[in-house]
Design goal:
Elements lengths: L1 E5 L5 E4 L3 E5 L17 E9 L4 E7 L3 E8 L1 E6 L4 E5 L2 E6 L4 E7 L6 E8 L9 E6 L9 E6 L7 E2 L5 E7 L4 E5 L5 E9 L2 E3 L2 E3 L4 E5 L3 E6 L3 E9 L3
Parallel strand pairs: 13-14
Antiparallel strand pairs: 1-20, 2-3, 3-4, 4-11, 5-10, 6-9, 6-11, 7-8, 7-10, 9-12, 13-15, 15-22, 16-21, 17-20, 17-22, 18-19, 18-21
Length: about 240
């Protein structure tokens, strides 16, 4: 097994008043040649948006964009005609393809919204743009990983144009969990949303990230109550 450890405090960061953001990989004004991407995983942003704040209409193309609210509600609008509120417990995906414009604003004027925004390189270029959003409440499982994203529209969760699988897990202190990679040659990036865990012998704390490849299985121990996101993606240079 090969690993890439990113402690929370080593991430790029910026505070614009309305936006407090942390970047696991190079993004905007943060650039580290050693931290541009992990295989097909290009962006992992940990955003906190103040009440009333948000991103005005802006473009994307040829990228799979996944948004996972952790606290509060996010208002989405795009030029495909979608106007939605994404809430804690939801997962949203947008295939930018040939090009989309969208905006994202805190749905509340008073309370902050915290979210993860994740970009994955697609395996097909110039696809027709698409939008989807689900609640994971119906597929939630306690003390084990449950799938929230895959390449297959028939699977649980949302789907994207890439051989990638995302899973969430909420674990009570002392519980264990395992994950088997779905495809040979893939790697998996684990991001600790809350709590402290040990994965394949590596101790991790809140907002730490651990990339692993040349591995077929992960074993997790929850050192405290914890929540973890696993992102399995193809590996390439």
């Amino acid at each position: 097994m090969k690993t890439m450890l990113h402690k929370a405090e080593t991430r790029g960061s910026a505070n614009h008043g309305w936006l407090d953001t942390h970047h696991t990989f190079s993004f905007a004004n943060y650039y580290d040649p050693e931290r541009v991407h992990f295989g097909a995983l290009r962006v992992l942003n940990d955003d906190s948006i103040a009440g009333g704040g948000g991103f005005g209409m802006h473009p994307h193309d040829n990228m799979e964009i996944i948004t996972i609210p952790l606290e509060g509600d996010l208002r989405h609008r795009d030029n495909m005609g979608n106007e939605e509120v994404i809430r804690e417990g939801d997962v949203q995906v947008m295939s930018a393809g040939t090009g989309v414009f969208h905006s994202e604003f805190n749905h509340s004027q008073e309370k902050k919204v915290e979210l993860l925004q994740i970009w994955v390189f697609p395996n097909k270029k110039n696809v027709q743009p698409r939008y989807d959003q689900i609640s994971v409440r119906d597929i939630f499982k306690s003390n084990e990983f449950y799938q929230v994203l895959s390449p297959d529209s028939e699977d649980p969760g949302v789907w994207i144009h890439q051989d990638a699988w995302f899973s969430l897990g909420s674990f009570d202190k002392g519980k264990t969990g395992s994950y088997h990679l779905k495809k040979d040659g893939n790697g998996v990036y684990a991001f600790v949303i809350e709590g402290d865990v040990t994965i394949n012998g590596q101790a991790l704390n809140r907002r730490d990230g651990l990339g692993m490849w040349e591995v077929s299985e992960l074993e997790l121990m929850a050192d405290t109550d914890a929540r973890v996101l696993l992102m399995e993606v193809p590996m390439f240079n």
